[in-house]
């Protein structure tokens, strides 16, 4: 039973355009959501997060949107740059149950073409 | 920048041998995680510790895997005996758990190959 799903294994976009990465979750106890970026031969690095009390969080070129009723979140990157090419993991956790334990999706490989 | 240090970076071993992976978490972080990434799956949680006490190791095969945190500067993951299906990249991560504190810091991983 995969509680966090990233249904698109890969995404390719042109430099300067918007990248939209999607993530769905099934556990209604999740109340904190994160995106990580991973380059080859490195560990994931934290990118941006959102609490369930919000529906949007923005940090520079990165914006995360949360739709709780649909149990869906997305990461928007605008404008996309070649250096954004990496694997992006969606993660979710709950504060009140197994506090701190994050469940990850399988990742989406983003390729930004110059 | 503070970082999580994992050793060794790469490990090739023969089936049946014992493997020990080490992790130095960031000083002050109260939670340490062990994740595994295989070709077929995303990041799979094996075990984690809060203030050095094991909280959950349900993701580990109990008969061959063990995780310990002998002190605040060292976490270990041991496999005995190792099997080819254990081949994967093992990541350690540390974080300060609490409302709104953001993500965890991952190490660069130990790439384990069991032949």
As residue ranges, the low-confidence spans of chain A are: none
Number of helices of chain B: 0
| SSE run of chain B | EEEEEEEEEEE
CATH class membership of chain B: Mainly Beta
CATH-scheme architecture of chain B: Sandwich
- N-C termini distance of chain B: 36 Å
Number of domains of chain B: 1
What is the multimeric organization of the chains shown?
heterodimer
Query: Gyration radius of chain B, to the nearest Å?
Result: 14 Å
Structural class of chain A: mainly beta
Main sheet makeup of chain A: 6 strands, mixed
Write the layout of secondary structure elements.
The complex is a heterodimer of chains A (114) and B (115).
Chain A: E1 4-5, E2 10-14, E3 19-25, E4 32-38, E5 45-51, E6 56-59, E7 62-67, E8 72-77, E9 86-93, E10 103-104, E11 108-113
Parallel strand pairs in A: 2-11
Antiparallel strand pairs in A: 1-3, 3-8, 4-5, 4-9, 6-7, 7-8, 9-10, 9-11
Chain B: E1 5-7, E2 10-13, E3 19-24, E4 31-37, E5 43-50, E6 53-56, E7 65-71, E8 74-79, E9 88-95, E10 105-106, E11 110-114
Parallel strand pairs in B: 2-11
Antiparallel strand pairs in B: 1-3, 3-8, 4-5, 4-9, 5-6, 7-8, 9-10, 9-11
Give structural notes:
- The complex is a heterodimer of chains A (114) and B (115).
- By secondary structure, chain A is mostly beta strands.
- Chain A has one domain (4-113): Immunoglobulin-like.
- In chain A, 0% of the residues lie in helices and 53% in strands.
- Chain A has no helices and eleven strands.
- Chain A has strands at 4-5, 10-14, 19-25, 32-38, 45-51, 56-59, 62-67, 72-77, 86-93, 103-104, 108-113.
- In chain A, the strands form two sheets. In chain A, strands 2, 4, 5, 9, 10 and 11 form a six-stranded mixed sheet that branches. A five-stranded antiparallel sheet of chain A has the order 1-3-8-7-6, with no helix packed on it.
- The radius of gyration of chain A is 14 Å and the shape is globular.
- Chain B starts with a strand and ends with a strand.
- Chain B has strands at residues 5-7, 10-13, 19-24, 31-37, 43-50, 53-56, 65-71, 74-79, 88-95, 105-106, 110-114.
- Chain B is built from no helices and eleven strands.
- In chain B, a hairpin with a 2-residue loop joins strand 5 (43-50) and strand 6 (53-56).
- Chain B is an all-beta fold and 115 residues long.
- Helices cover 0% and strands 52% of the residues of chain B.
- In chain B, strands 2, 4, 5, 6, 9, 10 and 11 form a seven-stranded mixed sheet that branches.
- Chain B has a single domain, classed as Immunoglobulin-like (Sandwich).
- At the A-B interface, strand 5 and strand 10 of A face strand 4, strand 5, strand 9 and strand 10 of B.
